Amino acid sequence: MKRALLKAVLDAKRERRAVAVITTIENGQQRLVAKENFGSDSLGAVLEEAFRFDQSGLHGGEFVHIHNPPLRLVIIGAVHIAQGVIPMARQAGYDITMVDPRGAFATGARFPDITLHTTWPEDVLPALGVDARTALLALTHDPKIDDPALSIALKSECFYIGALGSKKTQASRVERLQKMGFSDAVIGRIHGPIGLPIGAKGAAEIAISIMAEMTRSLRLGN
Q1: Which one of 2, 106, 161, 174 is separated from 189 by 20 to 30 angstroms, measured CA to CA?
Q2: Binning pLDDT at 50, 70 and 90, where does residue 221 land?
Q3: Is the N-terminal amide bond of 101 cis, ω within 30° of 0?
Q4: What would the pLDDT profile of 65-104 be if each residue is shown by its tens digit?
């Protein structure tokens, strides 16, 4: 890889931008394609699937090397369900950040080896940069904590937004977000009640349903 191309890849990684390096096998020629521009490339259809599934590979006479930003999971609420989600998310390759202003809950003893922020979501998330490789879970059941986080997520490109609560809780949440100026279409991005409807009982099974729904959104876009 030429120095200029390598620099472009490293710059994209630092800026959390998805790019692909495409190498023509016959002559070694290489080109860089950004995810937002893949449709204009001759391998557009291939690149769409390759970016979605983090899948490098040979296509005809060209090798596609995908460089996606690391997956990131932001959890709002240091609750029991989060303790079930975190090991699975870590195994699936997510960088995990916990945000909960209730310092008694968000402790290193309860949540070791992850980034903890014991402050309000609106003070953390803008600097963190919620992007298209980010999933956000709002788990506190407290509108003072969850709603600001959801508001920021809805204004972002994050691929998954989930909120804990019953259908009644979700209906109340929708009303509050409507009053904040969000349209029904935008609010519809929130998966609430969170998780696939698999009849989950208890924190561990709910965590499984959440990870399954996140994975579906990441890979299939729904």
Answers
A1: 106
A2: confident
A3: no
A4: 999 999 999 999 999 999 999 999 999 999 999 999 998 8
**Domain locations along the chain:** 3-67, 72-220
Q: What is the pTM of this model?
A: 0.90
User: Residue with structure tokens 């040979």?
Assistant: 58
* Mean pLDDT calculated for residue range 107-123: 93
Answer yes or no: are the C-beta atoms of 191 and 163 closer than 8 Å.
Answer: yes
Q: Is 197 exposed, middle or buried (0-12, 13-18, 19+ CB in 10 A)?
A: exposed
pLDDT at 206: 96
**101 forms bridges with which residues in the sheet?**
none
Q: Tell me, rounded to whole angstroms, the distance of Cα 165 from its chain centroid.
A: 20
Q: What is the CATH number of domain 72-220?
A: 3.40.50.720
CA distance 149 to 95: 18
Q: Residue 207 class from Cβ within 10 Å (0-12 exposed, 13-18 middle, 19+ buried)?
A: buried
